[in-house]
Amino acid sequence: MLRRLFGAGVIAGVVLVGVSAPSAVAQDDPVTMTIGLMQDMSSPNVTVGYLVPEFEVWNLQYATLTSKAADDFSTIPGLAESWVESNGGLTYAYTLREGLLWSDGTPLTADDIAYTINRSRDEEWYNHFSTVENLDAVVIDDRTVEITSSVPDPKLPTMDVYIVPKHIYEPISFDDLESYEALDGVSSGPYSLTEWRSGQDWTMVKNPLYFGRDNGIDRLVFRVFSNADAMVAALQRGEIDAAHNFNASSVEQLENDSNITVVAGLQGGFTELALNGMAGGIGDGNPALQNIDVRHAIFHAIDRNVLFDRVALGLGSIGTTLSPSADPTWIPDLGDGAFAYDPARSAELLEGAGYIDSDGDGIRETPDGEPFVLRYIIRSESTDAAPIAEFITGWLEAVGIGTETTVMDDTQLYDVSVAGEYDMFAWGWTPYVDPDPMLSYFTCDQVTYDADEAGYNDANWCDPAYDELYLQQKVELDPVKRREIVAEMLRFFNTNSTYLVLLQDPDLQAYRTDRFEGWLQQPAETGPVLFTNSSPTYESLTVIGTEPTLISEDTTEGTTAAGDDTATGDTAAPGDTAATGDTAAPGDAVIAPAPDGTDGSGDADDGGSNTGLIVGIIAAVLVLGGGGFFLAKRRGSVDDRE
Amino acid sequence: MSDVVKTQTTTFSPRSFRWQRRRAATVDFWSRFRGDRLALFGLAVLLTFIVMAIGAPWISPKEGLSAVDSIDNPTWATPRFDYPFGTDNLGRSVAAQFVWGSRVSLWVGLSATVLTIAIGSAVGVTAGFFGRWTDATLMRLTDWFLVIPFLPLAIVLASVLDRSLRNVVLVIAITSWPGTARLVRAQVLTVKQRLFVDRARALGASRFHVIRRHILPNVAPLILANVTLAVPISILTETTLAFLGLGDPKRPSWGKTLEEAFNAGAISRNAWWYYLPAGAGIVIVVLAFTLVGRAVEEILDPRLREGGL
Questions:
Q1: Band of residue A572 on the pLDDT scale cut at 50, 70, 90
Q2: pTM exceeds 0.90 for this model
Q3: Which fold has domain B35-308?
Q4: Residues from chain A contacting residue B162 (CB–CB below 8 Å)
Q5: How many helices (H) and strands (E) are present in chain A, helices listed first?
Q6: Interface confidence (ipTM) of the complex
Q7: N or C: which end of chain A has fewer CB within 10 A?
């Protein structure tokens, strides 16, 4: 249901030295595009996978009924070319494109759509259920499917659940579904997954029967790296064509390469400091954290500007509050509610709450006379976690709050977080386009009251007032009113919850501009190019030096169809993502200001640091060589004596 | 006259005789050690690092390690007057990390070695002296620990236990005692056959007395030589664990500096000043210990001495 942001890097690993030869350029060879990333899939099975990489696979393999515009996520035709609303917005009848086929030649009909929606609702499929929970789909004819919601649903007519092939999934029972490998390769999108070597790479080949544009790329290879520097080096050598999620410190180096464009794309992902609110009543969280003044004191002690400059290196943006959507415009202005860095205010709040340093050791005592020490868990799977912890523990100590740090991997951290056995940790989320799922995680329903039935609420905080607003926005069909309700929820959450959003995390991506062009950011200007919400980049790419292939009639058809029904007030944008005029792609909208205060390194240009490196290597050789000489010498002296 | 006799008796009392012999042995040891210029060089290097480790608070104030106290510093600064080894990605002084890191590296190196040797010697002496099923049991246990691949075991232990310095010491000791145990056992087996042991047993000495008075003094030189050679291994192990992110997150060690430099992308950035001091520090200290250790071993281990025993 969600995409946990699983870290920007691996703590330390074997440096993967690329051995694959640069991609061949000969005419007859298949055109391959290779994308490097730091994370393997958890499973390509659409009913169980939950990590970012498999979403890219599904975006390419399973077309959705409606798609999303590259520019602003607005709803555009997908498998359906048009739709008609009835019954006061509760029912939509979708008309499919003509002659749709699965990649194995089987016709794709309304039956596949109804089958997917109804089965995923009945069996509560992990990635489908939040969308289809209240829906019922009925086949009218081969090209028409009618979807009815039992409650007003502001998400409609957007239908972005992955449609699976009925003829493949029908024989698989509910019990077998979880262990299904999902390498059938039957696709309705531009590519289908054919091979997955866990921990190494996976390959997707072109679906010749795809209804959309043929970009001229025959194969996509996603290569998993265990070391970000090795991935950056592979990109610079041209072994891979694009790289996803490297260290912010590599940005400067990549920008100096004229054939490489760097994108720091935002799509709602954020890192938060979560305090244990103990709403579930289980675990051993420090009771002081249930005092809202103590929480605010902690929030005021943290300088998010410094985290942004020093840890995020000025990439992405400073955290404000929970970002519920990939579309940043959902975040309201917090005004005075944004917790500014104010250690004096922090000390005042702590004193008011009875936390005073009575023995003069620099650490305050709780009203019970115990030293006020909080446990802080550092994630081992993110390279930013340690520097963030370094700063936060330092700031907390400065206002007299002691900290004890421990390091955990994500599995361990998940276990202690559902068991409530923590005081604080920094972790992240990446939201969907519709704010509903992200907002739902902080309702009382999602609080974990029993570690065996874990909910999503890792703030371990909830409030009936928030839940009330949540239910209101869930059925509000007027988009303007819904935004107002969500804004109120977010302000309430910001003030009352146990979450402090530290950073809006960018997806750091870079691509070579010498083999393919037409890279698309989603959303426009600010978003990433790869691993986006609906992955429009691939269809827009062109192999440099080849004739762009003209697509069939579907572009125009789609545009008119979308124009026909904007009844709900949802702005249905013209569906021109598949257009061949792909040079419009803002290939160089890059957010990369130089980090502040780098004057020291600024002086040392490449030549300087190379000289330094050489000096260093010589010094190391001297030390090692000297040691070897000494040892040899010693042997000699022993021999002499004998 | 009676005075003289009295003096003579005190001079040749067993206690003073022992002391005299020890003093002579120390003088002899030192004169041999002094003859080895490399060992002296190693000792000088070690003393420098030990002085640096003890004097860390005076050499480099602890604030230099704090990211929060370094927010006004430039990041990635190359070495210059106010930052002798430059600064890191968070603006912290690399020199401060080097100075404070020596504390952890030396402390873990020494205490892990003491623990390793203590476990190893206890097992080795017990197995060698008592023989039979005690020997068989302890040696199978030793074999078992010997065949477990060292690094995976250390990583598993370090990730299961909390990440603290004490546990790092424990992990190193648990994974590296078997070598010492085998070595000590072998030496105990040869010492046990000597006539003076039989003689002591015949005179009614208890086993404990024999171990304390006859076995231990004779294996002590070997143990001591083993200590100086085990320290470098302990230091390197600590570095390895810290580099893999399994060290104490709150204490700067050279291994942690290397880990942070690696994670911050210092290598692709060519920020050599970030990782070189810690790397060189490890190499130099390990080398110094090895030089001293070889010399000590040579002097104390009769097999390496001219003429043998």
A1: very low
A2: no
A3: MetI-like fold (1.10.3720)
A4: 406
A5: 19, 22
A6: 0.78
A7: C
